[in-house]
Design the sequence.
């Protein structure tokens, strides 16, 4: 995946990611969070919420 040219990284802080995964009214699927391997210097990690 490549970020959009005007994309800005967002730091959710520790312990808040699960809220995005589970706190959605009307969701029909169980939440899951996939984390990418540790980033290299100067690279960001990709986190997929589905």
Sequence:
């Amino acid at each position: 995946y490549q970020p959009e040219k005007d994309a800005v990284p967002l730091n959710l802080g520790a312990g808040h990611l699960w809220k995005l995964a589970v706190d959605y009214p009307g969701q029909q699927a169980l939440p899951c969070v996939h984390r990418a391997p540790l980033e290299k210097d100067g690279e960001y990690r990709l986190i997929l919420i589905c």
Summary: The helical segments are 17-22.
